[in-house]
Amino acid sequence: MKKKTTIVMSAMIVGASIFAACSKLLPSAIDPQNGLSSPVDLSNAQNVLFAHGNDVFFANRTAANGLGPYFVAISCGSCHASDNRGHPFTMLTRFGQSDTTGNKFLNKGGPQLQNNNLPGYLPQQMPPGATSSRFIAPITAGSGFLEAVPDSAILAMAASNANNADGVRGHPNYNSIPSYITPFANAIPRGDGKYICRFGRKASTYNLVQQVASAYNHDMGITSSYMPFNPYNYLDQTLPALPSSPEVSDDDFNAVVFYVQCLQTPIQRNANDPTVQHGNQVFNQIGCETCHKQALTTGYSPIDALSYQTFSPFTDLLVHDMGAGLDDGYTEGNALTTEWRTAPLWGLGLAPGVQGGTYYLMHDGRARSIEQAIQMHGGEAATSAGRFNNLSNEDKSALLTFLKSL
Predict the structure, then answer these.
(1) Which residue, 176, 360, 367, 370, shows the most beta carbons closer than 10 Å to its own?
(2) Domain coordinates of the chain in residue numbers?
(3) Rounded distance between C-alpha atoms, residue 275 and residue 47, angstroms
């Protein structure tokens, strides 16, 4: 089973929908032994469905099979090479406003700006008055485990911070969910009918069905049974015609959801190395583990391999105030402009393999090294970042070695 991980830059040729691949930007696929691109333990029938989802996930789309009229990428794999993090070439721009009363620009093409368009359509532009933020695609490996963490565990992690001496608080991002989403059986909604969300840079997306539906529609302009309308460009003054049938079939859509759900968690490398173990201790001592939780446990899942599993994502799935330096003026759900979901650190050491040999970290890739990313932590994380800066060279080196082992 071969995955296509080469990111291509698409060029639309008038009169045809031909995409010319530029020179190779990224290395080849990461070996599954390095912790990505392999499934959890599945039955034979489930492995067939996983393989189907893999093929659809990495298949390039053209206008002939539903791409556009506005889009960012031509496949899921364009943004999630080897099921890892994205690259600035497929950066997403999302726009809205600075308060938390809901996106006021949905009738202007929100919440996402598509930077490519088919011939005959006007290029999208940011509407006046909107605030925006740029997002690099997060890692997809292990997503099914994050989905299976029960709401009660997320609420318990938030409650545990109530008296944190370093000022770490963090809270779930409650958001409205689409009508096509069925809440989890163990969901704990808020009194206003909003639900705890966990996916996306601001944790504004409820589950992987919503995530996949949104990605097809917003990233590729592909309709599904769940989101049957093409993205809207207010400059065109008319909505694109409703396709006669969904541009991704239910079978293909469900296979992609299953594929993402069943990706194995990234595997730590060199875990028994003394320097790595020392770095893990430093990680805990300076307070990083308060937000980047090393161990979470799933609840029940209809996929047996995901049920009641303890795993190491290095996230608490909460949003935290990260300070003025990371204030993008953009909100999603009840996450404020300075608040961001704790990014899972698993697969961090493998990121350069899909980011052109370097790092593009934080929500928009502004940090070009792990050390720089740590130093950008402000707000609730400022105390831990200060402790990092005051470490001895030996401890700092050990910590970075540990993080690169993830």
Answers:
(1) 360
(2) 1-270+299-307+317-379
(3) 38
**C-alpha 103 chain-centroid distance:** 20
The string of DSSP codes covering 281-297 is HHHHHTTGGGTS-S-EE
Q: pLDDT tens-digit profile of 209-242? A: 999 999 999 999 999 999 999 888 989 877 666 7
248's CB contacts (< 8 A; 6+ apart) are: 56, 66, 216, 222, 223, 224, 256
What separation in angstroms does the CA of 183 have from each of 179, 180, 192, 320, 391? 10, 10, 15, 24, 45
25 pLDDT more than 60: no
Q: Which neighbouring-strand residues pair with 335? A: 332
Between CA 272 and CA 400 the distance in angstroms is 15
Rounded distance, CA 8 to CA 5, Å? 9
320 in helix, strand or coil? strand
The label of the residue with tokens 């173990």 reads 277
- Report phi then psi at 217, rounded to 5: -75, -50
Give the CA angle between residues 211, 215, 216 to the nearest 5°: 120
The tokens 């300075």 sit on which residue?
A: 338
Q: Average per-residue pLDDT in the chain?
A: 90
Answer for the pair 158, 317: CB distance below 8 angstroms, yes or no. Answer: no
Q: How many CB atoms lie within 10 A of CB 339?
A: 25
Would you list the DSSP string of 24-51? --S--PPPGGGT-S-B-S--HHHHHHHH
Q: Strand pairing partners for 263?
A: 39
